[in-house]
Structures are given as structure tokens and as C-alpha cells.
Write a sequence for this structure.
């Protein structure tokens, strides 16, 4: 089965600074990759997804992620962080046909004024 | 558009009590899921229903049962609650197979078992 690792439990960045959240996956074939965001007291919301094609995908709220097969990574980026981006971010990996999606443990983002 | 609705939002149970968590979606999705979220562990799948009339175990099914009442509704039952079931529970739905189809989540039920 596939698995996903988010190496950073907690990241703090200043407002206006750039952001990169790391995600590494393990899967033998081409994975389906997702990033979700969870605000306090809320459910998870899809930020973006990668299925195939262009390895740089754009999502909502100004986020993007790049799929790098050679590094088994799908890192999330944002050029300039806003205070409202403070939340927990989850990377997830799925695969066609096996009805299984695995989530990472999450990275909590704090934004300093 | 309500999306995925879960009730209740909060619940406190004593050990051994039972309860049912309710979930309904209005997106005409085929698949529905129950996850639990615990600190540092991400989300773990309890049970899922790939389509109306079917249910299957996920990673952590022990102590739970589910019912796919119809296409819209998917309930989770704790027959005899234990402190280890203290968690935040999320219902989710997807158009098709969750391996390739994004999940839509409810806002969660925070359950405490004392």
C-alpha cells in the first residue's frame, strides 16, 4: 500500500514570506497526490491535486505544488503567506483502483505578523 | 449547498455507552467514508462505503459499525464506547473511488469518552 510522510510537524513563517511544505510518498506506480488544508474546528478542504500531465499544479488560495517522481515528492509552495493561511496541511496519496487514500500526519503552519 | 453534514458536533460519553454519529451528503456522491483524527497521526480510515449497499473495513474498524442507509446517508455506531475512542471523527464523500477522487469532508464530531 502507498504511504506518505510529512517531515515537518510544525513550521513558523512571517507574513509575506515564502512557504514550502514537504511531502514524500511511497508507491510503486504513478500516484494520485493531494494537498488538503484544515482550519481550526473545520473539516479538510482540498487545495490541489495531481493525477497526470504537467508536474506543476495550481490550486486555490494561491498555492501550487510540484510533483517530482525522481524524489518521490509533492511539495506545496506559496510565494507570499498571509495570516489567514495559518492552519494544518495534509498531504495524501491515492492510487487508481484500490480505493485507498493515505494521509500524512500533517504540518501545522503558524504565521507571524 | 451544504456539502457534507455531520451531527452532533460534540459528544461526551461514559465508558460502555453507545451512540451513533450521523452523516449526510447532498452532492450525489457514490462513496462515503468515516475517518478518525488523532494528534500526530493524521487521518485513519475506519470504514467506507464505495457505493450504496456496500461497506468495507478500513485501517481501524475495531469497536465500530456502519450503515449506509441510502445514497445520501452513512452512519457510524459505537456499541460500547472506550476511552481509546476519544477522537475527532470526520465523515467524507467522493464522487467515485477515493484513490483517485478528491474527498469532501464534514466539519467533524469531537467525541470524548470518560
Amino acid at each position: 500500500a502507498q504511504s506518505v510522510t510529512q517531515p515537518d510537524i510544525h513550521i513558523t513563517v512571517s507574513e509575506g514570506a515564502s512557504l514550502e511544505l514537504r511531502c514524500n510518498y511511497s508507491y510503486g506506480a504513478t500516484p494520485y497526490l493531494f494537498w488538503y488544508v484544515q482550519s481550526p474546528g473545520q473539516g479538510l478542504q482540498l487545495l490541489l491535486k495531481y493525477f497526470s500531465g504537467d508536474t506543476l499544479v495550481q490550486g486555490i488560495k494561491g498555492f501550487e505544488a510540484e510533483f517530482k517522481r525522481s524524489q518521490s515528492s509533492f511539495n506545496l509552495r506559496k510565494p507570499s503567506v498571509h495570516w489567514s493561511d495559518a492552519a494544518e496541511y495534509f498531504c495524501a496519496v491515492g492510487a487508481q483502483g484500490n480505493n485507498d487514500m493515505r494521509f500524512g500526519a500533517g504540518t501545522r503552519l503558524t504565521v507571524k505578523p | 449547498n451544504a456539502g457534507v453534514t455531520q451531527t452532533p458536533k460534540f459528544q461526551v460519553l461514559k465508558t460502555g455507552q453507545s451512540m451513533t454519529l450521523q452523516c449526510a451528503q447532498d452532492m450525489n456522491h457514490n462513496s462515503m467514508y468515516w475517518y478518525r483524527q488523532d494528534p500526530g497521526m493524521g487521518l485513519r480510515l475506519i470504514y467506507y462505503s464505495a457505493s450504496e449497499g456496500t461497506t468495507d473495513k478500513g485501517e481501524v474498524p475495531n469497536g465500530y459499525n456502519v450503515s449506509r442507509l441510502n445514497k445520501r446517508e452513512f452512519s457510524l455506531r459505537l456499541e460500547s464506547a472506550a476511552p481509546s475512542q476519544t477522537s475527532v471523527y470526520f465523515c467524507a464523500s467522493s464522487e467515485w473511488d477515493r484513490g483517485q477522487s478528491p474527498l469532501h469532508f464534514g466539519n467533524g464530531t469531537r467525541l470524548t469518552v470518560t
In short: Chain B has a mean pLDDT of 93. The two ends of chain B are 36 Å apart (CA to CA).
